[in-house]
């Protein structure tokens, strides 16, 4: 039941080598780049216009803004009062700043204590030699409880 395929109707095809596809790729790439540059040179695009201008301060008010956030605890001037350059206008609440300083100081002391431990371990000492300043901070009038545990 196998019938042979009739091939006399088939059109013989030309086999294409690699060179044909390389040429076709280059032609497509050049045509694409050329089309882009043609579009870029002819397409109407919005352009900015350079102008001159002046900035005028309305009234003599100036906006005052702190570089760091915070809570204003006291305003030292009243509206309409003249002030001189360098004169303080307000005071910020120091509670958050003091808490941050204490936290950073505790971290510094803990790192210093760890350094003393590591140096003692490196030198094969039987006991850790903490600096006198660090011992005073752990046993002074306001001892740091975390530092006292480490010492």
Description of the molecule:
The chain has 151 residues and is mainly α. It has a domain of 50 residues. 44% of the residues lie in helices and 5% in strands. The protein is built from four helices and two strands. It has a two-stranded antiparallel ribbon with strand order 1-2. The longest helix is centred in the C-terminal third of the chain and has 28 residues. The protein is elongated. The model has no long low-confidence stretch (mean pLDDT 79). Keywords: Membrane, Transmembrane, Transmembrane helix. This is Type I secretion membrane fusion protein, HlyD. InterPro entries: MFP.
What is the compact description of this entry?
Helix content is 44%, strand content 5%. It contains four helices and two strands.
> How far do the termini sit from each other?
100 Å
* Mean pLDDT across every amino acid position: 79
* Spatial strand order of the main sheet: 1-2
As a percent range, the share of strand residues is under 5%
Major sheet summary line: 2 strands, antiparallel
* Global morphology: elongated
H and E string = HEEHHH
Query: Roughly how many Å is the radius of gyration?
Result: 40 Å
**DSSP, total strands:** 2
Helix content: 40-55%
- Name the poorly predicted regions: none
Broad structural category: mainly alpha
Count of alpha and pi helical runs: 4
Keywords: Membrane, Transmembrane, Transmembrane helix
Protein name: Type I secretion membrane fusion protein, HlyD
InterPro entries: MFP
């Amino acid at each position: 039941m196998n019938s042979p395929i009739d091939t006399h109707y088939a059109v013989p095809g030309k086999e294409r080598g690699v060179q044909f596809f390389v040429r076709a790729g280059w032609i497509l790439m050049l045509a694409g780049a050329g089309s882009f540059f043609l579009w870029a040179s002819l397409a109407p695009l919005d352009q900015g216009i350079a102008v001159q201008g002046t900035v005028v301060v309305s009234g003599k008010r100036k906006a005052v803004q702190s570089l760091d956030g915070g809570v204003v605890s006291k305003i030292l001037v009243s509206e309409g009062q003249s002030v001189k350059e360098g004169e303080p206008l307000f005071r910020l609440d120091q509670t958050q700043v003091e808490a941050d300083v204490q936290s950073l100081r505790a971290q510094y002391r803990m790192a210093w204590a760890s350094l003393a431990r590591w140096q003692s371990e490196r030198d094969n000492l039987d006991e850790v030699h903490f600096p006198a300043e660090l011992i005073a901070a752990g046993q002074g009038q306001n001892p740091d409880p975390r530092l006292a545990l480490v010492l």
